[in-house]
Amino acid sequence: MRHLLSTKDLTRDEAVRILDLAEDMAAVQTREVKKLPALRGRTVVNLFFEDSTRTRISFEAAAKRLSADVINFAAKGSSVSKGESLKDTAQTLAAMGADGVVIRHSASGAPQVLAQSDWIDAGVVNAGDGTHEHPTQALLDAFTMRRRLHGAASRGKALDGVKVVIVGDILHSRVARSNLWLLRTLGAEVTFVAPATLVPVGVGSWPVEVEFDLDAALARIRPDVLMMLRIQSERMNAAFFPSAREYAREWGLDDERLVALGPDSMVMHPGPMNRGLEISAGAADSPQSTVLEQVANGVSIRMAVLYLLLSGEREALS
Ligand code: NCD
């Protein structure tokens, strides 16, 4: 494995190996000195063409905890806003000696283009491309589920039989797609719940059940994990539902639904949250909520991925 572009490409063994390695990385972060020398002398470039706070900071923290040098490149304020192409940007980074490139781009497939090009000879990590994939988010979500379910006995385990319901803006969500492929590979059962207007065309050929009524789905499935997605207003060029109030009433996780869900189900959200729209403040801050664990686990997962791609142990994954 030279790049991490999608979760679709990962085998079960590879995925479990990344989760296990992330356990080791998490252990490092409980030490007083949270740093490993593994990537000393390597350079990781964070190439962000789209807004992001937590993902960019998470990759930066991960690279630094592995002792890599980090260059942050945000498209705003760079030559990209002067019309520089991905190719020119990549060649500039290559000339600076980048060993790894973490790329977020609004165009689905941009990381793949970079990885397959001969513009740069670096490991490429997809940090979210358009509505396509966001593999490290899915890995950190799986890691969070595994830890809540198995605690200290997580190592080596997958997510067989775990019932996951993913609710909301599936149409625009790379998080939903990456999660679906990875969760299926790890043996979980996945259901999407959304208004019909926010379900992607072609979902019928995906290994997922689709429901439109949230209360009915929750009562029938009694999920172990309920994952709420952000309404991605920035990707919407039309009215996909009548009003925010209507959306919150039909598809939001409010306090009443949280009670009905019971204390043993996990509530997840990749962030950033629209509190009061897809999730109530009460649900977001409840003991069932893993929102902050997801953020913390993100650093461990990204350390594991960067380590596997850049430490010279690439063959270990393949
Ligand atoms: C997600 C993303 O950017 O795809 N957020 C994230 O990585 N922190 C989900 C989202 O934006 O809704």
TrEMBL record:
Residues 160-309 form the Aspartate/ornithine carbamoyltransferase Asp/Orn-binding domain. It catalyses: carbamoyl phosphate + L-aspartate = N-carbamoyl-L-aspartate + phosphate + H(+). Its EC number is 2.1.3.2. The keyword Transferase applies. L-aspartate binds at K82, R174, R230. Keywords: Pyrimidine biosynthesis, Transferase. NCBIfam families: asp_carb_tr, PRK00856.1. This is Aspartate carbamoyltransferase. It comes from Herbiconiux moechotypicola.
